[in-house]
């Protein structure tokens, strides 16, 4: 009879251990659910986070000028747009207004139109920025989109006086820019 008592005590002990382990698993699952929920609610950065520097690059403007990270002027608005993006089209008027008011003029506004360089739609799109910006036509995997780690279009950023990204956003109206006087 004593072995029956021992068997009941062992089964009860295993049941308690199992219950404690299951409560621990449930608690960990709740923590993971909260972490995943927090991560999904955060919007991705448009490009390199504030304080980061673009990678080394060498790119050619539409007028044939060769530029690099070292020749990037301080306090430069950098915009990445593409003709295949409806949101980009809606941002163009604000981008043109902000480009006209940037101190330093077109040298301090870089507009990167992402698309194929021979595509007439892309060339026409890039022509809209002629005279107010330094314009580039690049593929999505071109030097400039990769150097700035673009996460979507349109993407806007301000490169500070020391070559770091001071801020970035998907909407030009949300970007704090200096204004020419």
Rounded mean pLDDT score:
91
Shape: elongated
Q: Give the terminus-to-terminus CA distance.
A: 98 Å
Main pleated-sheet profile? 5 strands, mixed
What's the helix-strand series? HEEEHEHEHEE
Put simply, the count of helices is 4
Helix and strand composition category: alpha/beta
- How many strands appear in the DSSP assignment? 7
Adjacency order of strands in the biggest sheet = 5-4-3-6-7
Helix percentage range = 25-40%
Radius of gyration: 27 Å
β-sheet strand percentage: 15-25%
Low-confidence parts lasting 5 or more residues at pLDDT below 50?
Answer: none
Topology:
Layout: H1 2-41, E1 58-60, E2 66-68, E3 76-81, H2 86-100, E4 109-114, H3 120-127, E5 134-138, H4 143-147, E6 155-159, E7 165-169
Parallel strand pairs: 3-4, 4-5
Antiparallel strand pairs: 1-2, 3-6, 6-7
Defining key terms:
181 residues, alpha/beta, 5-stranded mixed sheet, elongated
């Amino acid at each position: 009879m004593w072995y029956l008592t021992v068997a009941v005590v062992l089964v009860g002990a295993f049941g308690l251990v199992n219950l404690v382990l299951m409560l621990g698993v449930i608690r960990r699952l709740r923590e993971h659910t909260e972490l995943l929920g927090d991560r999904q609610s955060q919007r991705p950065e448009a490009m390199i986070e504030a304080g980061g520097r673009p990678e080394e690059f060498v790119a050619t403007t539409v007028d044939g000028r060769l530029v690099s990270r070292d020749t990037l002027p301080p306090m430069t608005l950098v915009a990445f747009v593409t003709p295949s993006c409806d949101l980009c089209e809606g941002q163009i008027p604000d981008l043109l207004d902000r480009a006209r008011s940037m101190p330093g003029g077109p040298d301090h506004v870089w507009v990167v139109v992402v698309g194929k360089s021979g595509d007439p739609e892309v060339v026409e799109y890039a022509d809209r920025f002629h005279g107010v910006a330094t314009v580039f036509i690049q593929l999505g995997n071109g030097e400039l989109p990769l150097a700035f780690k673009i996460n979507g279009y349109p993407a806007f950023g301000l490169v500070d006086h020391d070559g770091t990204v001071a801020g970035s956003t998907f909407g030009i109206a949300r970007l704090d820019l200096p204004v020419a006087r």
